[in-house]
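Hey L., structure's done. Input below.
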Amino acid sequence: MEKVFVAKKVAAKLFATEAAVDTALVEASEFMSEMLKARQDVNASLVFADDCQVKLMEALKALSEARTAMVAVHEELNQAKLRLGIRTKMNGQDKPTFLAETDSDRAVAEAV
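Output:
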């Protein structure tokens, strides 16, 4: 299989994973907000469900660390791509619009 096609497949998974981590961070943050509002809505004291809030903060921290790790993976893969001799066009976009153009190999290829 040609290197560019392998790189395209890897890039698609990379972008999907980055998006999944970001989505998880958004969902967990919204969950925290909703949980804090719910405590206020039922007029519960600050100690009510405090252990849940602490655990959710730990989860948010882990997700943030996962996001930082994915940024590092992205950079490492960029370097590996160059070592393999795969060049990309600099078009000013950080990520492809592959989610909107899933069937377009060209859009993914330009992003690799």
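The first helix runs from residue 3 to 41. Residues 89-94, 98-104 have pLDDT under 50 and may be disordered.

-- N.
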